[in-house]
Amino acid sequence: MNAAAKQLFELWFLYTVGIVMIAARVFCRTRLVGYGNYDWDDYLVILVGFFWTAAVIFGRIFIQDADGRHTSDLNFEQRKNMNEKDYQEWAYGSKMFLVNLILYVVILWILKFNMLCLYKRVVRGLWTERFVKPLMAQVLLSLVVIILALALTCRPLKQLWQANEIGSTMRPSKHDLSNSDPDSQFEH
């Protein structure tokens, strides 16, 4: 089994586990309170199921169709010598990577918000209830900030997957920190 097949197996296995857990939660909650008495946390977990499905679909596209390529894996020489066909393939992979990264962040933050909705229901009428709404606002604000940080790192947005032209304002790093001894970076 090659690396892509292993990644796809893991992706679909984890998807199955997640969907089964979501389905079990929806089933138990529906039996307990019925559809008419759903609260925010019940609807949010269903929304997570849709985003989870979308993330797996985009993950499969990234692994299988784009061969796991994204432009941050390229060094300066590879970028400089790239033809148009390769550029399109690497740009496509980078787009899928960005979409998937944002989807995973959205999933995690919906789950955080979901837990706060559940907690709000659990502590209804207690003194700790007053802390839940500010925390909800903080979670929503942090979601927006993180998505903006991911999407606006390079402007215009298309420069996030720019592979063959680094432009006058983007310079290749002097040191490749990922493949070197950390102590050698600070020696003179």
UniProtKB/TrEMBL annotation:
The Swiss-Prot or TrEMBL record describes its family as follows: Belongs to the SAT4 family.
Look up the domain of life of the source: Eukaryota
| Name of this protein | Integral membrane protein
Q: Which residues cross the membrane?
A: 12-32, 44-63, 90-111, 131-152
Give membrane topology per the record: Multi-pass membrane protein
For the keyword Membrane, the answer is yes
Residue span(s) of domain Rhodopsin: 25-167
- Keyword Calcium annotated: no
Q: Where is the composition biased (Polar residues)?
A: 179-188
Alphabetical keyword list: Membrane, Transmembrane, Transmembrane helix
Q: Where is this chain primarily localised?
A: membrane
| Region feature Disordered, mapped onto this chain | 169-188
Q: Where in the cell is it found?
A: Membrane
Looking up PANTHER family in the UniProt record yields: INTEGRAL MEMBRANE PROTEIN-RELATED, PTH11-LIKE INTEGRAL MEMBRANE PROTEIN (AFU_ORTHOLOGUE AFUA_5G11245)
Q: Which residues form a coiled coil?
A: none
| A GO cellular component entry from the record | membrane
